[in-house]
Amino acid sequence: MRTIILEEPGRFVLRETPEPGRIASGEARVRVRRVGICGTDLHAFRGRQPYFTYPRILGHELGVEVVEIGENSAGLKIGDRCAVEPYLNCGTCIACRRGRTNCCVHLQVLGVHTDGGMRAYINVPVNKLHRSEILTLEQLALVETLGIGAHAADRAQTQAGEFALVIGAGPIGLSVIQFAKAAGAVVIVMDISAARLEFSRRQMGADYTVDAGEGDPLETVRQITGGDLPTLVFDATGSPASMQRAFDYVAHGGRLVFVGLAQADIPLHDPEFHRREITLLATRNSTAADFRRVIGLLESGAIDPTPWITHRADAAAMIAQFPAWLKPETGVIKAMTMF
Hints:
This protein folds into 2 domains: about 1-145 and about 285-339, Quinone Oxidoreductase, Chain A, domain 1; about 155-280, Rossmann fold, CATH 3.40.50.720. It has 10 helices and 17 strands. By secondary structure, it is an alpha/beta fold. Strand 1 and strand 2 form a beta hairpin. Strands 3, 4, 5, 8, 9, 16 and 17 form a 7-stranded mixed sheet that branches.
């Protein structure tokens, strides 16, 4: 079967590899049809992804079709189109026992800790498949990204009417914007890309945008909020420098949520942290409940992320095009690979 392997930072290869072995009890074999490209894949290509070893088959944003499955309580059958929840949790650790499967002690994420979906076929647990009879394969491949934003907004207990600043308007930031807006927050988006800020206004309905490369962005945010600063700040950049500066944007008594992951220490100035009594949160991945919620919203038409997909390529073309997707001037919001 066709398989894309990231042999080492900066080098993909397209190879014929054996199909997966026989499905085990509780597993299904799926035909991978669409693979979304996310920041994790970009970091892995650059050699900057934590918890990562090479060679690795990337791909965790998957739109798939079931091709082999046994009897199952989910009612799944051959031919069903599904999103894949790529977080393989143990089910027995303290996090899993408390329903926090997204931060399982022994978590294995497809395409990060274990080989993912940039291949024609993959065997996955049946309970990680989320079916839709309505959504397209591309929409299903976007569910994982959207789930991260849904989980972050819920974890932050986003409130209607409060100012929420989203720093970083990449796909993860866009998913946070989507669900902060859904919760009724007044959303401010900050980025250094004028194109992404325009996209946030036009496609996402951002209430305000701030160019972090112009003037004094902190003062701009202060003016937008009537001098109070936002009570909720999400940093979706994965940049240590941005994450450190994010503390400055939080109102007294506010919350700061790190959505992006950085392979670094993030210093904070403790006197100011205490003076404002900031609540600091990390948010990781999403849960099965988030997947079900996102699919329901997509099916109802309440959200539509398809305009995010700016670039498409089949497996062979992706290898040639991938380095360009890392360049801001290419204008990539979300790239999609077809298998």
